[in-house]
Design goal:
By secondary structure, the protein is of the alpha+beta class. The chain is built from 16 helices and 17 strands.
């Protein structure tokens, strides 16, 4: 770049940058999510942002995701090292596009150091080269939990997932939501009973999964393209529309299981679903928080059993705000062993963007400070520092104003940052070991001794 050329310092498309008020909201949500995850015994891990390319692409792991490769860029005076710095073949590296493939590699690397079932949470940033648009990012944070076992994994882990989802979304108070639960074995078994060829079933399930996005007419068209007969298509549509209370749907499924031909897979799915529903109820999840929805399929091929999607009632256009399910072979990829797992994922960056735009969440104050100690006189700064430290020691977040400005301007500065209380100490107050405490929200101002100041602020904050 020539000297004097203008540099474009705008953020690259699809790579979000938060203002302090937005970042504080993200941290608030992360704290709540982490607290719930840990209350169920999930342990944190972090995997590198960069993985070997062969890991990310092994056995079809990449799917439809566009991966960002990593290539070294040498300064002009070190171009001779270019070939040495280049990484090809097994040494080629790329940015991770999800948390699951790195989890599989992590387990393979640390197999003998981990206890199973291994319950982990991960709240890392991932990268995908998809087209950037409103609510879609190329860099975004995912909050994932998975429980991985060797050989067998209790269905009660599946039941825990709706309980965890419920606690998280109730804690952050985003309004009414519904966790829709299904089992892929039920869908697979139903298609088998209709005589649909095995090599068509996965594509049919993917089509069904798009019902809400594309509508019934297009679902029928796409099933027709898969050579599904009109009579079979209508039976599929009628089946996924089965509704009613949870117990009514279960009863209808049990009745079907007794009458369908070749119903072994279907019956197994119904049994698993009933076990999961019983567990969800025993965990105390309110009945209005979850339902059985036979149209929920999760289009990804690797799901084999329970699947979940969570929607915000009244804001269904936002799509799923938390989803996941059970899989059998995904994590054992690198070990050649079956390692069943179940997990859920919250795409936090996208979720924040959508909830802010819909007015469901609001950003927090730009600063975590709750109190500003204003600067009345430079010679009283030792007192201001001492008072600030005593407030901090009492667990109160404090900004000490080091710049001498008019009192009104200091109040404006505090108010602009969302700070509710200002501590005012002039020479008379200092001599009397007192202060004035001003509430910028109400305009009230009270006199408080320095000895009782921290307690007074804590009471008012409560």
């Amino acid at each position: 770049m020539a000297k004097g050329d203008k540099i474009n310092f705008s953020t690259p498309s699809g790579f979000p940058e938060f203002l302090p008020s937005e970042k504080r909201l993200e941290l608030y949500l992360l704290d709540n999510i982490r607290r719930v995850f840990e209350s169920y015994g999930f342990t944190p891990i972090e995997t590198p942002a960069v993985e070997r390319l062969e890991v990310l692409q092994a056995k079809g792991n990449q799917g439809d995701n566009i991966i960002y490769g990593i290539d070294p860029i040498l300064p002009p005076n070190r171009q001779a090292e270019k070939e040495k710095a280049g990484e090809t073949g097994s040494e080629a590296r790329a940015l991770k596009f999800d948390q699951t493939v790195p989890l599989a590699a992590y387990i393979a690397r640390h197999l003998n150091e981990l206890n199973f079932p291994f319950a982990r949470y991960q709240m890392d940033v991932v990268f995908r080269g998809e087209r950037a648009k409103d609510g879609r990012f190329r860099q975004f944070r995912q909050c994932d939990i998975d429980v991985i076992a060797r050989r067998e994994l209790s269905l009660l882990y599946d039941a825990q997932m709706p309980a965890i989802i419920t606690e998280i979304f109730e804690a952050v108070n985003i309004g009414d939501f519904l966790i829709r639960i299904n089992n892929r074995k039920i869908l697979t078994g139903f298609f088998q009973s209709l005589g649909i060829a095995e090599n068509k079933i996965k594509s049919c399930i993917s089509i069904i999964d798009n019902l809400e996005k594309i509508g019934e007419a297009k679902v029928k068209q796409q099933l027709e393209k898969e050579d599904i007969l009109a009579e079979q298509t209508q039976k599929i549509i009628d089946f996924i529309k089965i509704d009613g209370s949870i117990d009514e749907v279960l009863d209808k499924l049990k009745h079907l299981a007794q009458n369908l031909p070749e119903a072994e897979q279907f019956s197994l799915g119904v049994t698993e679903l009933e076990t999961v529903i019983t567990g969800v109820r025993n965990l105390g999840v309110a009945e209005n928080r979850f339902c059985i929805d036979l149209a929920i399929a999760r289009g990804l091929d690797y799901y084999t059993g329970t699947v979940y999607e969570t929607t915000l009632l009244g804001h269904e256009a936002l799509g799923s705000i938390c989803s996941g399910g059970r899989y059998e072979e995904l994590v054992g990829t690198f070990l050649g062993e079956q390692m069943p797992g179940v997990g859920i994922s919250i795409g936090l960056t996208r979720l924040i963007s959508r909830l802010l735009k819909a007015g469901i969440l609001s950003t927090l104050a730009a600063t975590p400070a709750q109190v500003m100690v204003v600067n009345m006189q430079e010679d009283l700064m030792p007192i201001y520092l001492q008072v600030s430290q005593k407030l901090r020691q009492a667990g109160i977040n404090v900004i000490t104003n080091f710049e001498k400005k008019g009192l009104g301007k200091q109040f404006q500065l505090a108010d602009k940052q969302g700070i509710q209380f200002c501590v005012i100490i002039g020479s008379e107050e200092a001599a009397a070991q007192k202060s004035s405490l001003k509430d910028l929200k109400t305009g009230e101002q009270v006199e408080v001794s320095l000895e009782n100041l921290a307690e007074e602020v804590k009471q008012r904050l409560a």
